[in-house]
Amino acid sequence: MNITLFYKHVTVLDFAYLDHLKGLVGESLIVNVKFIGKTDDEGILYDFSYAKKKVKEIIDRDCDHRLVIPENLAQSNQGISQFEFSFGLEGEIIQYECPDQGLCIIPAKHVSRSNLTTHLENIILKEMPENVISIELELIDEILPANKPKFHYTHGLKDHYGNCQRLFHGHSNTVDVLVNDQRMPEFEEMFANDLFKGNIHFCFWDNVQNKEEIISAHGDIPLGSVENCPNVQIAYESSQGFFKGLIPGRHVFFLQDESTVENLSINFAKIVKAQVGENERVEVRAYEGIGKGSITVL
Asked: What is the β-pairing status of strands 23-37 and 175-179?
């Protein structure tokens, strides 16, 4: 007789993927897992502590903080991957060059949640104990209050000591805005859908390679979104290697500082403060995915 062991919220998977309509999309998903198999002589299928540690280790190693792409898109040479991807009705272009570990390549013609789930189930099962005969994963969205706006974003932190240095990785989350301790849904909506258009790439201006072209189109060093912005070329060297990308300008939000969640919360709070006035107390909670983030009070 087979038995099923379940473990909810084993980890959160933060990654980015390529969408044929939207282009580059950041995502954060809660991971639930079921282990199906036979118990051992002590009546145990898989010890919970080992199960969680192993599943999280595999997901963190092979998919977390990577860009998920379909097979046969990228070309790899001496540990460096490159590709060009066309998306949308107007055939916009994304280009990317990164160390191989910046990508998660799934054996499918396109990236979907279903295809990614199957891929992760297969690689996890290979490292399970013999008595575990199959794995079932659930990749689910964070449960949010009704009408709470959500947005997706990608970024890369050049000097980060870990995997956040990968240029095209991402998250999906909300932002909380309070003025004088009162929640302000209109500002949350403004960030998610007006400023960030539901999906955005946060870009540190220092990492932009075609600065002169963008300044010429804008008339000044840009902050925030720029109308009619040309394609943005981004590049930097980090401890994991060289990262280089090209992304349509309308998908970019420029920042004076690195796009850490701490700096994002500061920037968001300053935007709100400028609109409500110096005498009002502004609190912004910016998230980096699910359940973690930074608070700024001005």
From this structure: unpaired
